[in-house]
Design a protein that fits this description.
The chain is 65% helix and 0% strand. It is globular. The N terminus is likely disordered.
């Protein structure tokens, strides 16, 4: 557990914006985890009557999940270079790669990696919402 660092942070990205990202990332993670059943394949059995009357809502559910991910991807892609670097740095602090006291170093490292693929990088992390939340807490935002 990281200790909270007592400092007023001058963030380019607003903490409320990060909280929105956290909410969307957790929704995406929850949707993935709901469908996961210990890594086993899901089997569907149909009897003769069910096959004729079957109505599948799975596409609507899948589309809703993809909309949340697509919305988050677009929000991240719309960030400017400084905001994207701070978002990545918050995730790194929350994940434990950097301490809150190393905030400037984390932001500089994130800025060096660029933001062309920031959304792909961040959305590939299953615990993104948790790590962003821990990062905000660590810096006291």
């Amino acid at each position: 557990m990281q200790r909270k660092f007592d400092k007023d942070w001058d963030l380019t990205i607003g903490p409320d914006t990060v909280r929105l990202f956290i909410e969307k990332a957790k929704a995406i993670s929850a949707a993935v985890n709901e469908d996961y059943d210990g890594g086993q394949d899901h089997e569907v059995e149909f009897d003769g009557d069910t096959l004729d009357n079957h109505r599948h809502d799975g596409l609507a559910e899948e589309e809703a999940e993809n909309l949340t991910e697509e919305e988050l991807r677009e929000l991240i892609d719309d960030l400017n270079v400084d905001e994207a670097a701070e978002l990545v740095a918050l995730m790194w602090v929350g994940r434990g790669d950097y301490e809150a006291a190393e905030w400037a170093e984390a932001v500089a490292a994130a800025r060096e990696r660029g933001n062309r693929r920031t959304s792909k990088y961040l959305l590939g992390m299953p615990m993104l919402g948790d790590w962003l939340e821990e990062g905000l807490e660590a810096i006291g935002a």
